[in-house]
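Take a look at the protein record below and flag anything odd:
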Amino acid sequence: MIEKLKGKRPFWVHGVSVGEVQALMPVISAARDSGYSGPIIISTTTETGKEMAFRLGEGLFDFHIYYPWDKKEFVKKALQSLNPWAFATAETELWPNMLWELKDASIPAFLVNGRVSDRTWERLKGPMKKKLGVSVFELFTEIYLREKRDFERLSSIGVSADKLIFLGDTKKDALLSRKDPPGRDRWAASFSSEKYKIFIAGSTHPGEEAVVLRAFEILKSRYHQTKLILVPRHPERAKEVLDLARQKFSVCLLSSGSFDSDVIVVDKIGVLFDLYGTASSAFVGGSFADKGGQNILEPVLWGVPVQYGPHMEDFTEASAEFIELGIATQVKDAKTLGDVWIGIMERSDSDDGEHFKEVSEKYFKRSSGSSIKTWERIYKYF
């Protein structure tokens, strides 16, 4: 690979896994759209991250590598071999040894789509932890933050204000580029959506499927022409979720290709976003389980109303705005979720669908563009 660089210094981007790759890919796309033709290397830590990189960005980057172990000797060797002109990582990923070596080598380092989750914020409490945290953040040349709350948190603990830039969420740009109405329509036809109303529970964690299935039971008792698509966060749990759903309903796996059942359990990655587009309503997981919430932007981009449990800390600002716009509902239990779904069915003949699409279009129109702004700032260091 070193030979293939032909002496050109690459732009090195690192995304640990799927979420971080999704945040970085629109920045790489913005770079190529701007005319940048230099080599780009993407590294991941997980195999699923690699799969997502090739799914979203094949042809945009030149090489994929696995991230070196974050020990001084390994990252130093990698930097000497690759000699990047800049390094960018995503979201909450702080790699102290890499950042120190980048600083020593005078290579600019950037945090893209940066955020300070509630868990990270808790770990920064206390004088010594705060001091250590600030020292790591200070190693970045610039930090591009997703939400104003992230900006306020890092400012309050003493990270240099001139490093902190609020640019918004690059994942919004990624979603806009991935929206595929024909793909959505093919799924909808296969689920017989002209006959059945589709409800979906996406990125669910252990314990959440039982809540969702109870909510669907409440819905099904009133409206028989409904189907539920259950998408566990980790597809290897599909058999476990299938067995749970089978206690009350007829069930099939998405991979079976036959969708006559009440409940369809998704056992593959990379399809959830399109599936959200088929639904009348979507529950987003990681929210009854204390996981900070999964991505509520995905269903909202399709104009699909969302519901979620009490934990949506990773999308605090979006959650508050969506609730205010009337396209999101925070629910406390299975009965509340079931009642919301019944309400959606009761209004299924109204203009709600068009209203939600209009809300979605206005929201994304005013909040997109972070990726271009991010690349423009990074490119100044080229």
Notes: The two ends are 21 Å apart (CA to CA). The first strand starts at residue 11 and ends at 15.
